[in-house]
Amino acid sequence: MILRELSVTNFKNIPECRLEFSGKVNCLLGNNGMGKSNLLDAIYFLSFCKSFSGVGDRLLMRRGEDFAILRGHYERKGVDEELLMGLVPGRRKSLKRGGKEYGRLSAHIGSFPLVMVAPQDIDLIRDSGEERRRWMDMVISQSDPVYLDNLIRYGKAVEQRNRLLREGTVDHNLYAAVELMMDASAEYIHAARAGWVAELTGLFAGYYRAVAGSEESVALSYESHLNEPGSTLGLLLDRARRHDEAVKHTSVGPHRDDIEMTLDGMPMRRTGSQGQCKTFTIALRLAQYDFLRRTTGMKPMLLLDDIFDKLDATRVERIMALVTAEEFGQIFVTDTNRTHLDEIMSRTGGDYRLWEVENGSFTRI
């Protein structure tokens, strides 16, 4: 899959631009705060209907403007496709594909697969389990729409149960109805997550060794209340009922799952150096890319946002050798250092484009 052209109006600090991209490598050069990452976020938004930064839609509109528009022209499985996203304050965001508006934005997820590697990825290691669950859900949903449907149903049911707990409801029939919905979705979610972590672990370990150039042992372990053989969410909820009534929220279930990340058997969040953590997260994202390429039958777009900072020259070289290989498709790279970009472009055989970015404006070099 290739993004051929992108038009942006009033998105973050970008007033207006129209860029035609190379099918292989596209580089954005400029100082921090100039708009390089904002362009990548616009591409991300067209795939996921939300910002990579997690900010609300209103904050994505350029200051002083009351709308934003993103238009992308793609080549997807040999067919030309157009996506048009519109943002207006107080209205539901609008996404049209080929001129036809989506009824549910969730139906779009996974159709235009994308992987973004950014400095914020350190949160996958250092932050709470919520960050890792969000990552699991984002990746699996791109390859399995049934998973996304179950995830949405489960989330709504948890909200309903928590509301019953907060209100002190004692009607067991109400709890039974909500918990039945939770149990049905939880089984699918747990099985999908367990299978995904198992598959990703092998891919991830290979990429970590390739980038680090060492024999350090890395691993991912899926932690869930449902891992216990014979356990069901219904049984877990029964055991936790008294506790949940006291604390006024649901304490067990897939919404409490986590991934333990280790280096040589030790928790990564406690023992990993800055360089090791960065190598770890880059390897996670490259493994994510490989997983999506295998499951969607397409080469996702790969967005590399300022990833070379704090890495030694040898690791930078190894990353560049990986991402410019045949297994990877279209790549977008941002950096403040042209040396890194020139090195990447030298590997592409001329199939690249480079822009200088300043105050939301893009000048082709």
Give a brief outline of the structure.
The chain has helices at residues 36-48, 123-126, 129-143, 145-166, 172-212, 233-239, 241-247, 268-271, 274-296, 313-323, 338-346; strands at residues 2-11, 14-20, 25-29, 68-76, 79-87, 94-97, 100-101, 114-117, 218-223, 258-263, 266-267, 301-305, 331-335, 352-358, 361-364.
How would you portray this structure in words?
This protein has 365 residues and is α/β, with parallel strands linked by helices. It has helices at residues 36-48, 123-126, 129-143, 145-166, 172-212, 233-239, 241-247, 268-271, 274-296, 313-323, 338-346, and strands spanning 2-11, 14-20, 25-29, 68-76, 79-87, 94-97, 100-101, 114-117, 218-223, 258-263, 266-267, 301-305, 331-335, 352-358, 361-364. The strands form three sheets. It has a six-stranded antiparallel beta sheet, with helices on one face. A six-stranded mixed beta sheet has the order 8-12-13-3-14-15, with helices on both faces. Helix 3 (129-143) runs antiparallel to helix 4 (145-166). The longest helix has 41 residues, at 172-212. The two termini are 25 Å apart. The model has no long low-confidence stretch (mean pLDDT 91).
Computed over alpha carbons, the radius of gyration is 22 Å
Low-confidence stretches: none
Q: Which structural class fits the helix and strand makeup?
A: alpha/beta
Residue fraction in strands: 15-25%
